[in-house]
Each structure stands twice: as C-alpha cells, then as structure tokens.
Amino acid sequence: MTDTRPAIAPNPPQRAIRLHRELDRVWTDLPGWRGFLTSVNHGTLGLRFMATAIVFFGIGGVLAMLIRAQLATRDGAFLDTALYNQIFTMHGSIMMFLFAIPMLEGLGLWLLPKILGARDMAFPRLSALGYWCYLFGGIIILLSLLAGVAPDGGWFMYVPLSGKTHTPGISADVWLLGVTFVEISAIAAAVEITVSILRCRAAGMRLAAMPLMGWYMLGTAAMMLVGFPPLILGSILLELERAAGWPFFDILRGGDPLLWQHLFWLFGHPEVYIIFLPAAGVLSTIIPVFARVPILGYGAIVAAILGLVFLSFGLWVHHMFTVGIPHMALAFFSAASALVAVPTAVQIFAWIGTMWAGRVTMRLPMLHVAGFFLTFVMGGLTGVMLAMVPFNWQAHDTAFVTAHLHYVLVGGFVFPMLAAITYWMPMICGRFRVRALGEAAFLLILVGFHGTFFLMHLTGLLGMPRRIDVYPDNPEWEWLNLISSIGGMVMSAGFALFALDIAMQWLFGRRSRRNPWRAPTLDWAMALPAPSYNVASLPGPGRDTADALLPLARGEGLLPGAPRGRRETLVVDPGSGRPDHVAVLPGNTALPIVTAATIGSLVLLMLAGLYPLAPLAILAILWAAWRWGRIMGTADEAAPIPVAPGLSLPEHYQCRNTLAFSGAVALLVADGTLYASLLFGVAFLTVIAPNWPAPDSGLSMLDLWLAGGALLAMAGGSLAARLAESRRTRPLGGQAALAGILAAILGLALLAGLALQLDDPTRHARNALRGVLLGHAAVHGVIALMMGLRSLADIRAGRVSRTRRGAAPVWRLFGDFWLATSAVSVAVVVLQEVLA
Amino acid sequence: MLAGCDGAFSTLTPAGPAASGIALLWWVMLGGAGLITILVLSLAWIALRSGPRATVERPWTIWGGLAFPLAVLAMLVGFALWIGERMIARDDGAFAVQAEAYQWGWSFVQPGPDGPVRTEGVLYVPARQPFDIVLTSRDVIHSFWVPQLGGKMDAIPGRRNVHRLQADAPGRYEGLCAEFCGLGHAAMRFEVVVYDPSGPLPDLAPLPQGSASAGGTAP
After folding, report:
1. Domain Cytochrome oxidase subunit I profile: where (chain A) (predicted)?
2. Helices A364-387 and A327-339: crossing angle, nearest 10°?
3. N or C, where is chain A less crowded by C-beta within 10 Å?
C-alpha cells in the first residue's frame, strides 16, 4: 500500500547527544525532593501512578488474605464481625478505586504519548493534580482502616444501610468523600487521555490508523467521562443526606433507596469495561509483537470497542435483578447483558486468529497472556450465565458471583497488567529481567488463582452468601472454603515473587538493547530507559514506527530539540493527524500539589464535621484555580515556529481550537452527564418513589421572576463573553468582560435570592433536589465568574491580542453551559409545579 | 463430586419447580460453557504451539466473534426466558403470606385455622401449590432466599415485592438473608415448614430458632 499522506520533509540531522542534552535540560524533573513535589512529566507521573497502585494492590491483597483466613474454618477464628465487615468493604473499595482505576490511568499517562508519538500528555499539570488527589484520598481511606473507622457497608454502599441511621459515625463519610476525592483523578485522567489521543498524535497519524492502544484508551476515557459522574453525583447526594439531612434515599420523605442502586450501577457496570478495555489494549499490542504478524481484524476490533462502550451503559440493571423490577425490563436487560459478550468474543477470536497467523514466541509477557485466556474465558461465560434472570435469582449475592467477578477482573485486568509490566519493564528501567523467577511467579499466581476461585462457584451454588464471616451450621461449605484459602495463600506467594522479580530486574538486570522485543510501535522508537522528553524529534509520515529510532534521535523528525527552552509538542487535527499548531506545555510546578492540598483540606474539614470552616477551604481552592488560569494568555507575539522544512506552525496562544478548549469540551461532557444524572434522579423520585406528591412548595410568582431574572443575567453574561472575545483588543473588549462579570454576579445574587425562597430541603426529596439544582447552578456561576475575571485581567494586562484570545473561548463554553443547564432546571421545576 | 452438592442451602438439590427449572438451566449452561471453554482454549493452544499459518480475518471475527456467540446467546436467552416465565408471580389469587425483614430476623404472617398468624423465623406454607411471599422491610435492604425452592427476592423499605415459590413435598427448608445487612447478616436465617394441605393444619406456634434439621426431610 502506498502512503498517500502528504510528505513532510526531514529536518537536517544533528548530533543526537547534543539534542538529548538540550531537551533533557528542559523536560527533566527538578533534582531531589523538589522533583517529587513539582514534577508534571507524564513519564514520572505515569510510573508513580502505577507504583502507588501496586502498593495499594498489596494492601488490598493482605486484606483478601485476612478474609480467606477467616473463612478457612466455619467458626472463623480471629476476626469479629465488625472488623470483618470493614475488611471486605475495604478490600473491594481499594482494589476498585485505589488499584484498578489508578493503574490503568498510570498506564495511559505513561504509555500514550510514547506510543502516539508525542512528548507529553495534553495537560501535564492535570496529570499531577490527579496523582495528588489520588494519593491524598487513598491515604485518608487507608488511615480510616488503621483508626478502626473504615467503611463497612460493602463496596457498593447500599442505602439505607449506609445512611446515618444505620451507620452513624464517619465510616460511610470516609468512603463517600474519600472516593470522590480520588475520582477527581479519574475525571482528570479521562479528560486528558481523550484530548491527548485526539490531538497529540504523530503528524499524519490518522485516527483510523493509530495503534489499537489509542482506540482502547479512547474508549476507556469516553466511558470514564460518562461513567464516573453518576457515582460522583450519588456520593454527593448521599453525603448531603448524611451531613445535612436532605432526604434523597429516605423513603419517608420522598426518597428511594433504589435511586442509589441505579446511580451506583450506572457507574459500576461500565466500570468493569473501563477496567477491561485498557487491559484488552495491552493484549492487542503485545500479541502481534510475539506472533510477529500485524493484528488480525483491526477494523473489527475498533468496532468491537465502540460496541462495548455503547452496550456497557445499557446493562447496569443486571446487578439489580432481585430488587423487583418490571417483567419486560428484566427481559430487556437480560438480553442486553448477554449481547455484550459479542464484542468481547470478536476480540478474543481476533487475538487467537493473530496467533494462528503468526509464530508465537513464548516469552514471559506471553505467559501472562496465556493466563488471561485460561481465566477470562471462563469469567466471561459465567457472566453470560448471570445475565440469565432465573439463574441470577439463585446465584446473586452468593460466592458464585464472588468467583465470577474475580475471574473477570483478575483474568481480564490483572493478568494483562502483569503482561504489560513484564513487557514494558525494559523501557521503564532499561534492563532485562533475571531468568526463571518470573515464570515461577506466573505459575504460582495461575495455580493459586484457580485454586482459590474455581471451586468457589460450587460454594455459591451450595448456597453460601457473600459477606458472611462465620457459617457454624454449614459443614458442607467448609472443605471448599479451606481449599480456596489455601489457593489464596499460593496466589499471594506468586504475587510476592512477581514483585521480587521486578525488583531484581530493576536492580540487577543487564542493560537492555533498544527495542528488545522488535516491536513495531512508536513507543520503542526511543532510547532505554525512556528519556524525559520521549523523542528528540517528533515522528511524522514515513517515520512513525519503531524503525524510525535513529532518524528521530538525530532530529530529522518534526520540532527537533528545545531551541526555545520550552516544553513544546505538536497538536494535530483529530481525524487526519494534520499538524495544526505547537502547544507550549507548562514545566515543573508545585501548583498541582498545592491545589490537591486545598481540596484535601475541604475533605478533611467535612469529615471532621467542621462545616463552618469549609468556606475557607473553598476560598483556597478558588485561589488555586485562579493561578491555574494564568497560562491561558501571554504577552508574547511569537513568530510561527519552524517545525520542518517548509512547515511553520503557530503557537497555541494564537489558535482558537487549543488543547485547553478541547479539554473544556471533554470536561463539559462529564459535567453534562453529572447534570443528566441529576435530572434522572429528579425524574426517578418524582415518578417511582413512594410518598409523592410532595407537600405544597409555597413557591410563588416572585420565584419565577427571580429565576427569569437569573436566566436573563446568564444570557447577558454569555453575550458579553462573546463580545469580549471578538472585540478583545479594543477598549470595548474590556468593557464587555466587565459587563459579563457583573452579569455573573447578578445571576449569582438572584440564585441566592431563590435559595432564600426555597422550601426546607430536609422536609421532602423534592425540595432537596431543588436545592441541588440550585447548587449546581451556583457552582457554574462561580466558574463563569472566575473565567470572566481571568479574561478581564488578561485584556487589561495586554495578554490577549488580535491573534491571541486567552481564556475567552472557554469562558463562553462554561457561560453557555451555565445558561443551558439553569434553563432546563427552571423548566423542570415549573413542570413539577404545574403537574402537582 | 455430586455428593458434595447436598446441604440445606444447595441450589443443586431442588425441591420445587422454580429451583428445578433453574437447576436444569444451570446444568445446560454448565455443559455449554464447558464445551465453549474447551473449544476456545484448544484453538488458543493450537495457535500458540505452531505456525505460522495462512489465515484470513473473516472466519475469526465474523464467524467466531459474531455469528457463533449470537446463535448461542439467542438460544440461551430464549431458553432462560421460557424457564423464567413460569416463575413470575402473577395476579391469580394464589396462597399468599407476608414476610417482613428487619435487623436481624424475619417476621411472617400466614393464614392459620383462625385467621392470619404472625410467626418469628418460621414460615408455614402448603405443599404442591404456588404461594406468593409479599416482602417488606422495616429498616435496611434484606433478601429472602430459600435455595432449594427457588431464587431470591429483595425486601426493600417502602416497597412490596412479590415473590412466587412452590414446594414439591412437605418438609422443612432453610432460608437466609442474601443481601448484606450489617452485623447480624450471617445469622439472619429462617425456616420454611411445608405442610400437606390435605392433612390437618400444623400448629403454627413459632418454633425456637436453630431447631431446624436439614431441609427436605419429612417433619
């Protein structure tokens, strides 16, 4: 096949070592502990994410061993029930939120720029902010276990059990606030992974021809943008109910415990595929390398990914088959749940076909791929079984489900991650591994895993429910549990050996040559271990495989070196990969950790119940956010940057469709999903929950006037933002920005007036939901206000110009979003009043 | 192996039509899943062991990935729907009892000789006829499960869930709470006493907890 992409002439070759020094000076972390606190480099942070996730995996594994020790005999020798409940809740929560999700985020951050041919992710500071939120949140959750006040309601925290009545104290608050804190990192990662894949690829790399890992991660990130907001909303609502008594789940006051289950599983089921897709991406990357052939069925796999993303949002109800839902809904969700097996089967057969077409060398990563096949196939099949409603009614909430989910998650995530670690270790540490240890670890993990979980299916069929700590009257379950416990210990030994193997490789392995697996992808087109800047010059048409290693190192690719002393990477058109502009990325800064600390202070104040002090923390967060916006404008009017002979591109300051703009759009997708989930909550409670209609709200025409006035103010603000952008260089631009700010303040004041009129939110769920709608509008009003202030400051300081727009385009986006969601909220309330 | 399938909570020793139907579904699915596992792993094994071989995409992704699972799933979903249809509660005036779950126990109301009788931890129902359990909860979510009779159904505060079961023969069957409900979850068990409807009604005095013998044996 001939390359039809427009050619980009090569830059003249330079001495590679000089380029390396020039780039490393710009891209490397600060030395010592300051580097630890201020790094924003995707390589550093990706590895740090993964290392931290592996530590949490170890902690979650120790908790699992405590569970297995307790269940080995029917009288469960040593844990009391209260502690046991904390331990299984923490095992699940840690493995899901502190291991699996951060692990895949770390892999994405670390790998994507390398495999797509960029120097960093689109938002380096956001990588760092995500990491610190994850670390701080994880530490808060972990400390609660040491303090004996860990969450104990099961990892899906069903209400009313997790409500204030049945779980007084702070254990549930630790889960709700801690996990939400950690999820900031998930949203951050989702935004930057989406934007990086769409816009930070090698020049000329078409979307439809990018490495499959890109497609998998794009699917993952899209699912995270849509999947996490329902959980975040549910956590906010439950925390509001616990802390302020707003009844969203309290049946007596118009709430419904099933609303929590819907919100949780709207997140929880896509979550399984969020975890599976990156792992499948690893398989689609590794298998062709060891089979020495290109992947079979690229198009079919991309279609399967898109199918999975779509289908996974249509089957959350299969976690709720026993809550008493309508007959037809059961049939629909059962069929949909079975259907999701199809895109998975497409991938499995594509992988087998790839191995069939090639000649597979069984190196250690391929052993873990074999572990995936041996485990995941069975997990998928038991998943189809559980999708069948009658069988689900028997197996639900038994050890059968425990076995199934471990087959899926260990088979579909842990084994591929072990493959990924062993595959990319030479790039991470520049060394080969020590022989034999890895194979022994693999065998122990495989045997231990199946020893633990294979017979657990039978344990469940014999009636053993989940989450019990003793079973004194059921000797028939004892031998099965004992076998599972022994298997668990073997598996633990395997993981310990795996960790030892990695440590040995890091410390004692011999130096690896470049591209040791002879892989085709761009991630191997660099020196080992991977340098801070990845590639000395960026790949382009004809130089976008691992074979381009030397020309890229000599600076023959695009944008060679760092002659301007700044971190620069190429931004391309999302579909075609046509070079669009050059992004100037931020360097080392403590702003992310400071911001995470301000958010953490808010979380801690709420946990301590010191609500009067919370506004201080919010002010601190706003101060930090203000500092983030500083890089949106610049006073420099730079000439176009020479990227390649005959190709010069503008800086991102001189473009409208910047990475920041794309990121704002991605963030608004998540934000919009959060709002849609809230509307779902309003509709669900209004229609389904008992104890409706609510008592008379006492709303009057005055409130309609207030709401109408607020909407007019928001519309004025949106208009002003447009004027501020289009007239930015003239005095009129500054006046428009000022008008927009005043409009935002007026809108917020009118919202405050509405808040005073609102019926007591603790009285009924309807009022509480209106309170949340109002709060949602207020938060976005503050965001719009901040953006207006940023635009005004930039205009006044001459940091925008005829070619440079600063923050105004993003201000418009958020202003429009504020207006649109508020208008819908007003319409919803009016509708409720009219129908009541 | 099957000797291990005994026990009062075994779904594999069914004692009612719903549990029997599900057990049949399970054995069918186990057979199918076993065959598919062997098929897929054999293909993977052959693919791993030797090669390279000339191959094209279509048989793998279209036939293996699309057509094969679609055909199997269509048959399976149809079969499961057919099994499931027969165990849905419907409005036909069946024998009805009430079950109220609480932390941590079960309170039942069932017809007695002189009108409804409330019992704690023991439910009395007639054999060989369908009965509906009307499930409610006093506090948190619980789940009513008698594995030998059929599937489980949640007891949710503010809701009335109706669950239909039937026992083939008189006897005692054991049940438990399947939804995690706090400190007393593991011990939240109950007993279903199935009596012969043609004989005299049993004495509905609540039995002391823990006196239950293994399920399925005649009283």
Report:
1. 21-542
2. 160
3. N
**What range does the domain containing B150 cover?**
1-53+88-219
β-strand partners of B164? B132
Query: Considering the domain boundaries, does residue A208 fall inside one?
Result: no
Any B CB within 8 A of A469 CB:
yes
Distance set, CA A594 to CA A136, A620, A625, B55 (Å): 12, 10, 10, 56
Domains: count for chain A = 1
pLDDT digits (tens, 9 = 90+) for A404-445: 999 999 999 999 999 999 999 999 999 998 888 999 999 999
- CA proximity to A176, closest of A223, A100, A243: A243
- Asked whether residue B82 is domain-assigned, the answer is no
B22 in any annotated domain? yes
Which pLDDT value is given to residue B92?
A: 86
* Chain B contact set for A283 (CB, 8 A): none
Tell me the C-alpha distance between A425 and A427, whole Å: 5
Can you give A402-418 as a three-state secondary structure string? Answer: HHHHHHHHHHHHHHHHH
pLDDT tens digits for range A726-748: 988 778 899 999 999 999 999 99
| Spatial contact of B108 and B118, defined as CB atoms under 8 Å apart | yes
Q: List the 71-130 stretch of B: residues with Cβ below 8 A of A.
A: 73, 76-77, 80-81, 83-84, 87-88, 103
Residue A204 pLDDT > 50, yes or no? yes
At B7, which CATH number? 2.60.40.420
Helices A341-357 and A298-311 cross at an angle (nearest 10°) of 160
Chain B residues touching A462 at Cβ < 8 A: 4-5, 7, 9-12
- Reported as a pLDDT band with limits 50, 70 and 90, residue A237 is very high
Q: What is the mean pLDDT of residues A375-385?
A: 97
CB A282 within 8 Å of CB A716: no
Distance CA B181, CA B103 (A): 7
> Which positions in chain A touch B81 (Cβ < 8 Å)?
331, 334
Residue A325 — very low, low, confident or very high, per pLDDT cuts 50/70/90? confident
In a domain, A812, yes or no: yes
Mean per-residue pLDDT for B130-135?
Answer: 96
Number of domains, chain B? 1
> Contact, A196 vs A118, CB < 8 A?
yes
- Measuring CA to CA, which residue among A109, A124, A120 is closest to residue A38? A124
What confidence category does residue A533 fall into, taking pLDDT thresholds of 50, 70 and 90?
very high
Residue A435 is encoded by which pair of tokens?
């022989």
Distance (Å, whole) CA B36 – CA A118? 42
CB A257 within 8 A of CB A323: no
* More confident site: A176 or B115: A176
The verdict on residue B66 lying in a domain is no
Q: What phi and psi values does residue B149 have, to the nearest 5 degrees? A: -100, -30
Phi and psi at residue B200, to the nearest 5°: -70, 150
What is the distance between the alpha carbons of residues A95 and A107, in angstroms, rounded to a whole number? 16
Query: Residue A636 falls within a domain, yes or no?
Result: no
Give pLDDT tens digits for A607-619. Answer: 999 999 999 999 9
CA distance A258 to A797: 53
Q: Tell me: pLDDT of B137 over 90.
A: yes
Residue pair A716/A748 in contact (Cβ under 8 Å)? The answer is no
Show the domain range for A701.
Answer: 693-835
**Total residues belonging to chain A:** 836
Q: Can you say whether residue A542 is alpha, beta or left, with left for phi > 0 and alpha for psi between -120 and 50 degrees? A: left
Give the model's confidence band at A249: pLDDT under 50 very low, under 70 low, under 90 confident, else very high.
very high
Write out the E strands in A317-456. Answer: none
B61 falls within a domain: no
Q: Indicate yes or no: CB of A465 within 8 angstroms of CB of B145.
A: yes
- Output the domain CATH number for residue A701: 1.20.120.80
